[in-house]
């Protein structure tokens, strides 16, 4: 299975221009699973909730409508972030779009810093989705950016059978990419972190999008400022092997009997 990411520097508020630019890049790719950054068509550094409302849309809206023929014609599975409007609520969401036009959604559970002023914390839990890629079924989990600092969602997705975790991001700290190596080792899964590049309203993003293998090996990592699409071949079946040694399994060796916090 060919998996990878798109890293670029979107223009704040220019959804149409950003969509056209990404669409042009995606049109050159075929038969792949590609992850895009968090809020990748709207920009990220909002000044107030009203700014979010001007660019937010329902999950099946203009963005999905624009991307659907591209993923269909090029046999792409796409994961991308967007500002989702659901009634009166705004969510920082991620969408999995298949070549058949099917959409699956995850809403960000752990909001970062000023996101708490605009977005409602996610209510989807941590679902795992079945993806049929060239006749094989692969289980995919979705997380977004600051979810990275909490080990629980990664373990929950792993316990639910996730083999690949797609991680759209707008990272500003320098150490998340290294932390993803640990998350992959802990759970023996593939992790695709798609970060954005550049600067927006004096906020600098760290780029360095990457794909990490099941043993913490970095399969691809790019620079901070580069833009483009990068992919690598992987065997998702490797994520079913949770063995560290012949006698140690990262899931079955857990001591759940000792993990409860005792009340005094």
TrEMBL record:
Residue span, CN hydrolase domain: 1-236
One Gene Ontology term of the molecular function aspect: hydrolase activity, acting on carbon-nitrogen (but not peptide) bonds, in linear amides
Pfam families (UniProt xref): CN_hydrolase
Gene3D superfamilies reported for this sequence: Carbon-nitrogen hydrolase
Presence of keyword Transmembrane helix: no
Origin: domain of life: Bacteria
Keywords per UniProt: Hydrolase
UniProt keyword Hydrolase, yes or no: yes
Stored InterPro entries: Aliph_Amidase/BUP, C-N_Hydrolase, C-N_Hydrolase_sf
Protein name, entry field: CN hydrolase domain-containing protein
Organism, scientific name: candidate division WOR-3 bacterium JGI_Cruoil_03_44_89
Source lineage: Bacteria, Bacteria division WOR-3
């Amino acid at each position: 299975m060919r998996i990878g990411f798109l890293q670029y520097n979107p223009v704040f508020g220019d959804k149409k221009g950003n969509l056209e630019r990404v669409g042009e890049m995606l049109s050159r790719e075929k038969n792949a699973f590609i992850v895009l950054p968090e809020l990748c068509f709207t920009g990220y550094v909002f000044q107030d909730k009203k700014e979010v409302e001007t660019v937010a849309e329902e999950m099946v809206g203009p963005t999905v409508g624009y991307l659907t023929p591209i993923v269909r014609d090029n046999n792409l599975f796409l994961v991308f972030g967007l500002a989702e409007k659901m009634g009166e609520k705004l969510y920082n969401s991620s969408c999995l779009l298949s070549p058949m036009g099917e959409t699956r959604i995850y809403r960000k559970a752990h909001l970062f810093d000023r996101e708490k002023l605009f977005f409602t914390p996610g209510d989807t839990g941590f679902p795992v989705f079945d993806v049929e890629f060239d006749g094989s079924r692969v289980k995919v989990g979705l997380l977004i950016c600051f979810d990275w600092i909490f080990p629980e969602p990664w373990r929950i997705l792993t316990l639910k059978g996730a083999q690949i975790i797609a991680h759209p991001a707008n990272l500003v700290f320098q150490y998340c990419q290294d932390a993803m190596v640990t998350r992959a080792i802990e759970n023996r899964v593939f992790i695709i972190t798609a970060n954005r590049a550049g600067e927006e309203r004096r906020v600098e993003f760290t780029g360095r999008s990457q794909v990490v293998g099941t043993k913490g090996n970095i399969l691809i990592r790019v620079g901070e400022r580069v833009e483009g699409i990068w992919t690598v071949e992987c065997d998702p079946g490797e994520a079913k092997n949770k063995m560290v040694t012949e006698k140690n399994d990262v899931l079955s060796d857990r001591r759940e009997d000792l993990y409860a916090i005792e009340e005094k």
